[in-house]
Amino acid sequence: MIEAALVFAFGCYGLGLLANLWRITRGPDVADRILALDTMVINLIAILILYGIWHGTAVYYEAAMLVAMVGFVSTVAYCRFVLRGDIIE
Amino acid sequence: MDILAELVIALFLVVSGIFGLVGSFGMIKLRETMQRLHAPTKATTLGVGGVLIASMLYFVVVKGSFSFHELLITLFLFLTAPITANFIAKTFLQAHARESDLPSTERSHGWALFDDAPSEKPDA
């Protein structure tokens, strides 16, 4: 039962990644693209955790934590660059 | 394995998958940027929270080991989601809103987007 639920969740998040990719290519505004990239990072965290459950190892938490931190910092840096033309003033 | 625990874990996985899909589908479906800001910051964050709860339950029930790592990730995501949403909204406003369009802040200093930061000393 857990295997079927895992496959379902993998499918959902994979479709979500495709939707975000569509928004990155089409997004009329820079803000849309940053938002889509941020959502991609969140979906990627979910997929990493699911992969960890699939293999039954706890190794992927650290990877997910790192991806979460890098994703947040990169989103803020990208927004600040667009806003101020500089990341650290 | 206990069938009830398995059922609960599967339920969490399915519900979180649906939330994640809804959040990302909102990126396609909603029409304007400020509307699109709603979908990922709320639904997707909740979906990831569900996945992390499912993972925590799975490792408690199946492996018999409890860990706080998932809680850390959940806490981090719940803390950072509003900040990124605020920054993205600012980015959008800077490109599309003029200062005259925005309502007054009714404070001594205006919108952070257009005004400098308030000086360190408060106005006596």
TrEMBL record, chain A:
<keyword id="KW-0813">Transport</keyword>
<keyword id="KW-1133">Transmembrane helix</keyword>
<keyword id="KW-0472">Membrane</keyword>
<dbReference type="InterPro" id="IPR007208">
    <property type="entry name" value="MrpF/PhaF-like"/>
</dbReference>
<dbReference type="GO" id="GO:0015385">
    <property type="term" value="F:sodium:proton antiporter activity"/>
</dbReference>
<keyword id="KW-0050">Antiport</keyword>
<dbReference type="Pfam" id="PF04066">
    <property type="entry name" value="MrpF_PhaF"/>
</dbReference>
<dbReference type="GO" id="GO:0005886">
    <property type="term" value="C:plasma membrane"/>
</dbReference>
<keyword id="KW-0812">Transmembrane</keyword>
<feature type="transmembrane region" description="Helical">
    <location>
        <begin position="6"/>
        <end position="22"/>
    </location>
</feature>
<feature type="transmembrane region" description="Helical">
    <location>
        <begin position="34"/>
        <end position="54"/>
    </location>
</feature>
<keyword id="KW-1003">Cell membrane</keyword>
<comment type="similarity">
    <text>Belongs to the CPA3 antiporters (TC 2.A.63) subunit F family.</text>
</comment>
<protein>
    <submittedName>
        <fullName>Multisubunit potassium/proton antiporter PhaF subunit</fullName>
    </submittedName>
</protein>
<feature type="transmembrane region" description="Helical">
    <location>
        <begin position="60"/>
        <end position="83"/>
    </location>
</feature>
<keyword id="KW-0406">Ion transport</keyword>
TrEMBL record, chain B:
<protein>
    <submittedName>
        <fullName>Multisubunit potassium/proton antiporter PhaG subunit</fullName>
    </submittedName>
</protein>
<keyword id="KW-0812">Transmembrane</keyword>
<keyword id="KW-0472">Membrane</keyword>
<dbReference type="Pfam" id="PF03334">
    <property type="entry name" value="PhaG_MnhG_YufB"/>
</dbReference>
<feature type="region of interest" description="Disordered">
    <location>
        <begin position="102"/>
        <end position="124"/>
    </location>
</feature>
<feature type="transmembrane region" description="Helical">
    <location>
        <begin position="40"/>
        <end position="59"/>
    </location>
</feature>
<feature type="transmembrane region" description="Helical">
    <location>
        <begin position="6"/>
        <end position="28"/>
    </location>
</feature>
<dbReference type="GO" id="GO:0015385">
    <property type="term" value="F:sodium:proton antiporter activity"/>
</dbReference>
<dbReference type="InterPro" id="IPR005133">
    <property type="entry name" value="PhaG_MnhG_YufB"/>
</dbReference>
<keyword id="KW-1133">Transmembrane helix</keyword>
<feature type="transmembrane region" description="Helical">
    <location>
        <begin position="71"/>
        <end position="89"/>
    </location>
</feature>
